[in-house]
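Friendly challenge for the regulars: who can give me the structure tokens for this chain first? No prize, just bragging rights.
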Amino acid sequence: MIKIENLKKTYPGKPPTEALKNISFNVERGEFLAVMGRSGSGKSTFLHQLGLIDTPTEGKIIIDSVDVLSLSESEKTKFRLRHLGYVFQEYALIPELTAWENTYLPARALAIDKNYKTRAKEVLEIVGLSHRLNHFPHELSGGEQQRVAIARALINKPKILFADEPTANLDSISSKVVLDLFQKLKKEFKQTIVMVTHEPEDKAYADRILWMKDGLLEKIE
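First reply, four minutes later:
Bragging rights claimed.
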């Protein structure tokens, strides 16, 4: 699903900061990959390059046979919206919108599926929130807000789901609910998932663990 070749990211400065150093790696279709390492190891930077949130200094990223770094900025925007889903640590829900409205917003923006409101209800049912459709974010627990964020990430049926520290702000029970949901998505829907995490217990949920250290790919388990 993802092929990474000689990926580098350098931030300007005196001296320049090498955040990623010559990483080559493949992510298989339907795989649940965890990216782990100490704070500052380059985990989130790595995820941002794969998710087209940032642009690497050097290297190649192929997603489902598409050389995504060769796309124009407008083409990248369309590619992200159509094919990539994102779950962030801070949920990033719009407080004035209900769970249902937050979920269908990306589908409305894409303007391909006219039945996006029905699709949003179906996805919220998958994440176990069909009974919370019309609740606003402040009326939901942290775990419920994160599940709305996951539903929103899934609304356009993405090829890849990227998750950046998705359980960092959750208690242990809510964290387990989110991780169990990721496993359900992988097993039942063959969803490809790339998750950055620093929680040791999260390792048990992933198919493989990519360990990073000082911007390098240290090892693979």
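The chain is about 35% helix and 25% strand. Residues 33 and 194 are 5 Å apart (CA to CA). Your move, everyone else.
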